[in-house]
């Protein structure tokens, strides 16, 4: 929200002050070793870890990476406006540096970590969210240690079983979920963006400018699309009660609901379309992107989920169950979903007619 306030209202001092207050709240959730807590318990007056681990404060790396990335983005925004930004950049850089030892060796993050422990408590693809703050720190510093870490993450992404019937899951041992598929797609776009920037710098090197090396991930665009498209609800028949959810994103194998990630999915699919090797694939991905954005338009911005069919009552017959199903239930507005969807809508608008950028 802090970044959005600065981007949408750069000349409004009151909103800038609010943005800084919001960012300062995030700073208070940083563990001394660099990781970020996401949740604050108001009654206890303490930051707390992810649910399911009441005996110890476990930190989710996906959320922590997002906080670090947004603080670094805010630092960039403030820096361009000539405003103080050092503490936000330092906080984001400290998060990234936590996974590098004194010799610059990189420890790939997992899905969950104990505060101050580099070795993952639980492995999982959610740790690849680290790519985004890492790429920002590398872009700002150009240091080789960050390039090597990015390269390691890119190779981890490429080593996944692309081109098979595999679908990714965010956490080890859990059911596949759309969040992991969207993350894989966003990383593919990020690495393509970095590779494009490297090519531009390489052309400038012949005129005496310094060229920076960047990581690249050899993931086929069609393979990247194949793990995301199965999550897009494309059944033209409306569920019981009406309200066709065409373009909605199924949550997971376990949670049969549609998440309010239409703009994020549209962003990823539009980006993959711009990189597609042939016109047919490009047209297909663009069509699905529009479908997802249309679904997002039909919901209040920030809607967490759409339970498109309520579960039937226990003990009833199958025919009675089908008849008793009630119309779709719109879930609550979630602050994280709201700012994410607003962010991707802005990225899509800024990238109209070309590959959207996740800046």
Give a concise summary.
The chain has 359 residues and is mainly α. It has helices at 2-8, 13-28, 61-80, 86-97, 131-141, 144-158, 178-205, 221-226, 262-275, 279-297, 318-324, 335-350, and strands at 39-41, 46-48, 59-60, 112-113, 249-250, 258-259, 305-307, 329-330.
Task: Tell me what you see in this structure.
The chain is mainly α and 359 residues long. It has a domain at 1-159: Glycosyltransferase. Helix content is 48%, strand content 5%. It has twelve helices and eight strands. It has a four-stranded antiparallel β-sheet, with no helix packed on it. Strands 1-2 form a two-stranded antiparallel sheet. Helix 7 crosses helix 9, helix 9 (262-275) runs antiparallel to helix 10 (279-297) and helix 9 (262-275) packs parallel to helix 12 (335-350). The chain is globular, with a radius of gyration of 21 Å. The model is unreliable at 208-217 and 316-324 (pLDDT under 50).
Mean pLDDT across the residues is 87
User: Can you tell me the CATH architecture of the domain at 1-159?
Assistant: Alpha/alpha barrel
**CATH class category of the domain at 1-159:** Mainly Alpha
| CATH topology grouping of the domain at 1-159 | Glycosyltransferase
List unreliable stretches of 5+ residues.
208-217, 316-324
Task: Bin the helical content.
Answer: 40-55%
Report the oligomer: single chain
Strand tally is 8
Radius of gyration: 21 Å
Helix count?
A: 12
What order do the SSEs take from the amino end to the carboxyl end, as H and E?
HHEEEHHEHHHHEEHHEHEH
